[in-house]
Design a protein that fits this description.
The protein has nine helices and six strands; from the N terminus they run βαααααβαβαβαββα. By secondary structure, it is α/β, with parallel strands linked by helices. The N and C termini lie close together (10 Å).
């Protein structure tokens, strides 16, 4: 078995954007008049917006529908991110993407963020040039930790799950990769707020210790 595709999460793996999501959510929760403790918020990292708002609506007995909450989230989050001017790729991310593509390995982006936000962030950082496919959490029936988003990305890329590697910084993302039957690299990003990556096949602290050759070795059958 050889490596055919690498599927990246976006927030915290390609761009250190988790702190911006935290600030955006603080504004959103404030507008709704609720205070969500960090322990609860940390459990939402990597999770689809729908699943997050279903949980929050039940926990705080909100009168708005999930669809209304998703619309409110979309509006305020996009407005907040449109004001952020300092987003750049995490050091080494662009170089790894270039290396993979030079070796003929296909690349995918599978993020729980909405497609408009993915386009905003990847466009602002120049990362939109490096992906064969982009799948957002709103395009699958079940978000992370369900495997749907990774399975869909692999299908479009024309790769079997065992021919794919996922790079993730959240516990929900690692669970999704495992459920999809894909090798998972846990990306230890401090901005992801103490995520448990122990179920990943390997864990790295940055791209300085991760290159295309290492990824290719991970899917080789002895």
């Amino acid at each position: 078995m050889t490596l055919k595709a690498v599927i990246f999460d976006m927030d915290g793996v390609l761009v250190d954007s988790e702190p911006y999501h935290y600030e955006a959510e603080t504004l959103i929760f404030g507008e709704l008049g609720i205070s969500v403790p960090d322990a609860v918020r940390n459990s939402f990292v990597g999770m689809s917006g729908r699943k997050m708002w279903e949980s929050i609506r039940d926990r705080y007995s909100l009168s708005s529908t999930v669809e209304e909450l998703l619309g409110f989230d979309r509006e305020l989050r996009l407005r907040y991110f449109s004001t952020v001017k300092s987003m750049v790729p995490i050091p080494g991310a662009t170089e790894l993407l270039r290396d993979l593509r030079a070796r003929g390995i296909r690349t995918g982006l599978a993020s729980s963020s909405i497609r408009e936000l993915i386009a905003l962030i990847t466009g602002a950082t120049g990362l939109d040039l490096y992906f064969d496919v982009v799948v957002s959490g709103e395009e699958v029936a079940h978000g992370k930790p369900a495997p749907d988003i990774f399975i869909r990305a692999a299908d479009i890329l024309g790769a079997a799950p065992k021919e794919c590697i996922v790079i993730e910084d959240s516990a929900n993302g690692v669970k999704a990769a495992n459920a999809a039957g894909m090798v998972c690299v846990g990306f230890n990003n401090p901005g992801a707020r103490g995520q448990d990556l122990s179920a990943a096949d390997i864990v790295v602290d940055g791209y300085a210790t991760l290159d295309a050759a290492i990824l290719m070795d991970l899917v080789k059958i002895p």
